[in-house]
Amino acid sequence: MEPLTHPLLDEATVSQLRATLLADETSWQDGRKTAGYQAAEVKNNLQLDRNSKTAKENSQLVIKQLESDPLVKSFALPRHIHGVMFSRSGIGQGYGMHVDNAYMSSGRSDLSFTLFLNEPESYEGGALCIQTLQDSKQVKLPAGQVIIYPSTSLHAVETVTAGERLVCVGWIQSYISSNEDRTILFGLNAGARALLAEHGRSPELDLIFQAYTNLLRRLGS
Ligand SMILES: [Fe+2]
Predict the structure, then answer these.
(1) Of 148, 162, 140, nearest to 66 (Cα)?
(2) Which of 71, 83, 56 minimizes the C-alpha distance to 173?
(3) Fe2OG dioxygenase domain: which residues?
(4) N or C: which end of the chain has fewer CB within 10 A?
């Protein structure tokens, strides 16, 4: 399954969010506290304490945005968005190659997301690297844009060499655990929605939406 990159927060929202996070001087802690056993050895960053007021309020904001975005809904079919964390990496910090835990105390990870919160020009290094079969896809998006990718992927964060990288990461438990099934459903839904936008409702389109909905019911969990 190909990752989805998508604008999620507008400029005003992202700059307000960034200011709120950085104004909290007491809640940032060593990222190794939240890593699984395989990841702890390769994790090197700062994370906002999930129990802090700043983290709770702002993770809700991100979850609401993801849940209300039609493209994200169609792509990820989210049942539960969880484990949301704010992370900052300064010079010398990164996150080595790893795979995210399949099950966390907060839910199953079918899809992982990284929402970039500062502009790519403000830091060097810090790209999210997603391993493909023979290559590695490097991703560094403008502030407010999110990438959603299968949690089955090996991935890393390049070491930051200048400035500071600020992101929000989290996981999606999808109604559809299989990447392949989710990809098929996404294509069907995208095609039907495009037909609806172009030609309006029709009995034929009703049949396609019916098949889509019943396929989702059959494959979902
Ligand atoms: Fe990860």
Answers:
(1) 148
(2) 83
(3) 80-174
(4) C
pLDDT digits (tens, 9 = 90+) for 94-149: 999 999 999 999 999 999 999 999 999 999 999 999 998 889 999 999 999 999 99
Distance (Å, rounded) from C-alpha 36 to C-alpha 34?
A: 7
Q: What is the rounded distance in angstroms from the CA atom of residue 4 to the CA atom of residue 130?
A: 12
For ligand 1, the distance from its centroid to the CA atom of residue 82, given in whole angstroms, is 14
pLDDT tens-digit readout, 157-193: 999 999 999 999 999 999 999 999 999 999 999 999 9
Which pair of tokens denotes residue 147? 């990438």
Strands of the chain, DSSP E = 4-7, 28-30, 43-44, 46-48, 78-89, 94-98, 103-104, 107-108, 111-116, 123-124, 128-131, 136-139, 145-150, 155-157, 162-163, 165-174
3-state secondary structure of 106: coil
Alpha-carbon distance values, 174 to 55, 79, 97, 150, 220 (Å): 23, 5, 24, 11, 8
Class of residue 168 by CB neighbours under 10 A (exposed 0-12, middle 13-18, buried 19+): buried
- The C-alpha atoms of residue 165 and residue 127 are separated, in whole angstroms, by 9
